User: Fold this.
Amino acid sequence: MNGQLAFPLSGDDKASFDNFWVGHNVELVRAIKASVQTCEPNVVYFYGAQSSGKSHLLFAAMRLAKQEIINTSYLSLADAYVSPDMLSAVDVKHLVCIDNVQAWAGDKIKERALFTVFEQIKHAGGQLIVSATQPPDRAGFAIRDLVSRLSSGLIYPLIELTDEQQFDVIRMRAMHRGLSISDDVLRYILNRSTRNTSELLEILDKIDQASLVEKRKVTIPFLQQIFASE
Assistant:
C-alpha cells in the first residue's frame, strides 16, 4: 500500500504538532515524534477523554511521517464502516495509527484481527501509535494476549488542558485563521462553552464563517447575535 487509508483533515485547520497545545503532555509528544523519526519506540499507546486531542496527535504524527517520506495508514475503530478485513490493507512496514481502539473491545473477532495486525507490524518492523479512552488493562478487551501487545510499548495518559491553557489554544487557533479577537471576547466564548476543546474549535469555526459572511469585527454583541440564532 502506498500512502494513507485516510487522512481526515480540513484544509483550513490542519492538525500538526505546531498547532497542538502540549500543556503537560511533553513526554507523550516527544515519544510520538521519536516513534515516527527514529522508529523507537515501536509501540506508543495513549489514552484520554473524548475530544481531548487524541485524533489531532495521530494526524500530527502522520503529517510528520509525510515530511519524513514515510507511508502511513490510519483507521478509527469508532467508525461504523471500519471492519476487521480493512486491517489487511494497512502498511505494516511503516507507520500505522489506530484511533479509538477501545471501540472493538469485547468483540473477540475484532480483537483477534487487532492482535494479528499488531503481530504483523512487529515482525515487519513497522511503527504503531494507538489512541484509546482507557489504558489497555481497563479498556474492556477480552483477549489477554491483545492487552499484553497493547501494553508492550510506552503508555501515556493524555492530560487535559487547564482553563487557562484552553484560552491560549483558542487564541492561537484564532491567530492562525487571521481572526482578530480580544481577550475579553475569547473569555466570553469560553464561558459560553462546556470547555470541551473540540466544541470550542467548532464554535471558533462558526464565528470565523459568520464574520466572513457578515464582514463584521468579532465583538461580544456580534457573538450574542450568533448564539441567539442557534
Q: What stands out?
A: DSSP finds eight helices and five strands in the chain. The chain has two domains: 26-157, 163-228. Confidence is low (pLDDT under 50) at residues 1-13.
